[in-house]
Amino acid sequence: MPMPTEWPSSTLPIANTSHFGSHGPLSAHLIGVCGAGMKALAELLDGLGWRLSGSDFSPATMAIEALVQRGLVFHHGHSAEHVPRDVECVVYSPAIPMENVERVEAARRAVPQYSYSQMVGRLMEARAGVCIAGTHGKSTTTAMVGWVLSHAGREPSVLVGAELCGEPVDATRVSMDLASSSISSERGGVSPPVLRRVSDPQEPGGLRHPAQTGIAGADAQDSTAELSEAHRSGWAGSGELFVVESCEFERSFLDFSPRYAAILSVEPDHFDCFADLPSLVQAFGKFAHRVTSDGVLLVRGDCEAAVECVREATARVVTFGVGAGCEWQADTIRSGPEGVRFRVVCRGETWGEVELKLHGDHNVLNALAATALCAEIGLTAEEVAAGLRSFPGIRRRFEVVGERNGITVISDYAHHPTAVAATLKTSREVFGSRRIWCVFQPHQVSRTLALMEDFATSFVDADEVLIVPVFAARERVLDEPFLASQELVRRINACGVSARFVESLDRIKATLDHAARLGDVLILMGAGDIDRALDAN
């Protein structure tokens, strides 16, 4: 049986200017459609009128079920029969190997196959790409840029690796008398093997983006609210801009050729791809070189590694940050119960004021980057300020999800020492003297071991730390997830912070029920499945 190979991007059906398609709605089968990036891509293609099917070992989430309502045919599990007979291309997530039965079937039938990043790169050829890269802040900054541009009526297409939140919850004012039932899972039960369209996507009442309705101005602001309420991470617009979160993993961002780009920071990470910092800097340098010569490349001016990446860029380089000499800076930063405000300074002159519903110095930097990039694209200070003021945030980034037995519960994606420390610092600023529990699930044994010392010192703002076994994504392991986490516990305790090892997610509830008390704050932290800890039996 023939095995899949990579096809050149020129075999993908050529796109026209407005809808990426040359002969009406195109079709694609998405393998691994429940993944964050693939789900966002499905939402975007659906908005462009593509006919879609998809499969995943994971059951359908609420987001996938919403896509089913709009026409996606979803299969739970993988089978050669899931590849439609008349499909024009297959798109697969980074987690799907060549040996996957659906990829093998596509190869047997000579159906063109594309990785997620190859497909996005091809789509970008018809638009002006806006790519946000960096070790930290990619998802939030990408969502900010996409939201602000949409709010301003520019109608971009957007791909983010995280879902928009609904109306943000004020973490300091959550009622203390909610029962544990306030915490609910959105994953639901196991879906049927096949979900098919149950309603016409053109029927009244469905979510419509300005690209589909032709609305702008105040109506565009209403549409961004709809995107938030629907927890979208991908959407299609009729404008020329295509905003994409651009990840360095497997050097996938080298499939993009943007007109505008940002490198937010560069720190050692993804040790299964990059042996050391120089190899990572080299990859980011190649990404910087892919920004078109008539474009703009925004870089964190006070991050030495990030600056090193842009030395050979042909695009115009613009800097942002808090260090002296950065062209775009945040000044007069004021934090309060409802978020943060700051003054934007551009090349020594006041450019505008920004008000966020988010907390933390890291979000000041994210918003500053979004501001600078949107300004370079052509938005006014008033347009940027209005968009950021209404930005709801994204899920699992210091997201207050409710309460359990009088304990405020927050979900956060931090899985790198810098992000862990930033999240806990923000928690201390927001909650003051309240006792903070951090339940941390390390992500990948390789990352945990390589950054062990940095991880050990990143929990200083927590009162109690619970460490569960490492989530060993893409790794073949035996007892390493347990041993690495146990060693991390020893290192954290040696730093003077109370930490203990919990052998499984289903023990978290019992541990907290025994030791936590009314008024405590609980942060479920990590990039694996730690957010399910309170749902475990």
Overview of the structural elements:
- With 537 residues, the chain is α/β, with parallel strands linked by helices.
- The protein folds into 3 domains: 9-117, NAD(P)-binding Rossmann-like Domain (Rossmann fold, 3-Layer(aba) Sandwich), CATH 3.40.50.720; 128-190 and 214-390, Mur-like, catalytic domain (UDP-N-acetylmuramoyl-L-alanine:D-glutamate ligase), CATH 3.40.1190; 399-535, Protein-Tyrosine Phosphatase, Chain A (Alpha-Beta Complex), CATH 3.90.190.20.
- Helix content is 30%, strand content 20%.
- The chain has 16 helices and 22 strands.
- Helix 9 (304-309) links the parallel strand 12 (296-300) and strand 13 (316-320).
- Helix 5 (138-151) packs across helix 10 (361-377), helix 5 (138-151) crosses helix 11 (381-390) and helix 10 (361-377) crosses helix 11.
- The longest helix has 17 residues, at 361-377.
- The chain is globular.
- The model is unreliable at 1-23 and 168-217 (pLDDT under 50).
Features:
single chain, 537 residues, alpha/beta, Rossmann fold, UDP-N-acetylmuramoyl-L-alanine:D-glutamate ligase, Protein-Tyrosine Phosphatase, Chain A, 3 domains, seven-stranded mixed sheet, six-stranded mixed sheet, 22 strands, 20% strand, disordered N terminus
- DSSP summary: helix tally: 16
**What is the rounded distance between the termini?**
43 Å
CATH superfamily of the largest domain: Mur-like, catalytic domain
Count the beta strands: 22
**CATH architectural group of the largest domain:** 3-Layer(aba) Sandwich
Strand order of the largest sheet: 9-7-10-6-11-12-13
What is the C-alpha radius of gyration, as a whole number of Å?
23 Å
**Overall structural domain count:** 3
Outline: globular
CATH topology name of the largest domain, in short, is: UDP-N-acetylmuramoyl-L-alanine:D-glutamate ligase
Instruction: Tell me the β content.
Output: 15-25%
Q: Specify the biggest β-sheet.
A: 7 strands, mixed
List the uncertain runs: 1-23, 168-217
The residue-averaged pLDDT reads 86
Q: Structural class, judged by helices and strands?
A: alpha/beta
CATH class of the largest domain: Alpha Beta
Oligomer, anyone? Answer: single chain
Q: Specify the helix fraction band.
A: 25-40%
